[in-house]
Structures are given as C-alpha cells and as structure tokens.
Amino acid sequence: MTTFWFIVIAFLWTGYFVLEGFDFGVGALLPLLSRSEADRRQVLGTIGPVWDGNEVWLITAIGAMFAAFPAWYSGLLSGFYLPVFLVITGLIVRGVGLEWRGKVHSRREVALCDAGIVTGSVLPAFLWGAIFGNLLFGTALATVLGGALSLSVAVLHGAVFVALKTTGGVRARARRAALLAAVGAMPVALSTLPSVPGRGPLWTLGTALLAAAALAAGVTLVWGRREGWAFAATATAITATTATVFGVLSAAPLPGLTLAEAASAPYTLTLLTWIGLIALPGVLAYQAWTYWVFRKRLTAEVSLSA
C-alpha cells in the first residue's frame, strides 16, 4: 500500500504540473501575446473555464500527502515554508486577478489585475521547480536550475496551448513565443541530464531522456504548425520529468527519511484506498468532460462576447 500511494501522489502531482503548467505559461505570456484588450481577453479565455479546476490537482496531491505520508508532508512544507508560502500567495493573487478582471472598468484596475495574473503565474512556476530541485540535489545551483527549467517549460507549454486554442494574430505570436521559450528550456533541460544517473532507479534515466526528446519534438511540431501534437509532446515532457523526479524520491522523499518511515499506518492507507476508488474516477470524468466542452478554438469575437 505504501508504494501504491506513492504512485498515486506522483500521478496527482503530474496532473497538476501538466494542467496548471499551461495555466502558468498563459498567464506569464499575457503581456507578450496581446496587442489589444480583445487579444488579452482571447488569451485569458483559453484558460478561463479550466484554471480553477486545474488547481484542484494541487489540493488533492497535498491532501493525499498529508493523509498517506504525514512525515513527508510536514517535512516538505516546513522545510520549504517560505517558497511554499510564496507559491500560495502567488496562486491567490492570480486567482483574484482572473476573477476580478471582468468586473472592473478603469484601466488602472485592469492593469493591476493583469500584473497580478502575470506575477501569480511566474512565481509558482519558478518556485515549484526550485523546491523540487533543492529537494533532489540540495544545492543552490540545482535550486536555480530547477526553477529555470520549470518556468521555461511552463512558458513553452502555455505558448503551445494558446496556439492550439486561438486564431489570428494571437495564434501566430504564440507560436513565435513557443520557439523563443524553447531557446531557454532546451539548454536547461539538457544540462540537468548528467545529474540523473545514480540518483534513482535505472529507469529514471530513460524518463529523463524521454523528457528531453519530447521537448525537442514539441518545438519541431509547433514550428510545423502541428499545435495539437506539439501540446501532446510538451505534456509528455512534463509527465516524464515528474516521473523522473518522483523516481529519484522513491528511495527517500526527504533526506534521512525512507518511504516506509514516512507512511501512515496500514489501516489508514487501506481506508484512503477505498475513498480514492470512489472519488477519483468521478473527478477525472468531470474534468475530462470540461475539456471536451471547451475544446474549440477561440476567436477575438467569441472572447469579447463571453
């Protein structure tokens, strides 16, 4: 049961990074992809129906850690108290900006909402990578590289998502932004590969190589205007990266703490399993339905009428 719940938590974090990753990227790119208010509404319209649902993955992942691995939960959140606090602050600021932007009218208030969206997207995207980079390697350089990797990949992922979901000038600018983001993401991703061997199970080297290959494929596909396949490639890169991280953490989620030592009692894990089997399929089905309903591209006219 311990291994099973570690895999479940890894799955939840993966879902969060894949789905919230493009939310972060879209928010960070807002001022760069927009030339007018219609453009800004078109950009934000790509994540409008889904961003708050995507945050549920984080709440579920943290809640599962608390219930299944309380020692890991407490050690992670207390050891990284300041960056986690800043992540939460950023998410709150971004949420306020997204919710209030359509309810205010003066240019100053709209500009403040936009600034909150950008700041609340860039800050968590960088800090999550910094936290896990420090957790894996424990050095200042790894912290910075982890933050740079997660931010640059989120920007690339978000740019591809905007290109997939929009038309016209916004779509063209999103494709160019994706190519520019790749200039930062690819070197950082390749620089982290030599650190993987010997850190975890042998298969983590394979997932790390898959992440780099998927990232390169995403860039190639967006260059060829195959945004759907490009988005699948960047999502695969994030999935493979997260699998690598949790593969390395599987031996010791915190320094000096094994997975077995961090786990709850068997009875608690069994009870959690039954709750998860009942609740998780419904949550996944609802989110899949949401993405299906809002699957079409957005035009400037649709965004302004929404």
Explain what you see.
- It is found in: Cell membrane.
- This is Cytochrome d ubiquinol oxidase subunit II.
- Belongs to the cytochrome ubiquinol oxidase subunit 2 family.
- With 306 residues, the protein is mainly α.
- It has one domain (2-293): Formate dehydrogenase/DMSO reductase domain (Formate dehydrogenase/DMSO reductase fold, Up-down Bundle).
- The chain is built from 13 helices and no strands.
- It has helices spanning 2-33, 37-45, 51-68, 70-79, 81-100, 107-137, 140-165, 168-192, 203-223, 227-249, 259-262, 266-293, 300-305.
- α6 (107-137) packs across α7, α7 runs antiparallel to α10 and α8 (168-192) runs antiparallel to α9 (203-223).
In terms of topology, how is this protein built?
Layout: H1 2-33, H2 37-45, H3 51-68, H4 70-79, H5 81-100, H6 107-137, H7 140-165, H8 168-192, H9 203-223, H10 227-249, H11 259-262, H12 266-293, H13 300-305
Helix pairs in contact: 1-2, 1-3, 1-6, 1-7, 1-10, 3-4, 3-12, 5-6, 6-7, 7-8, 7-10, 8-9, 9-10
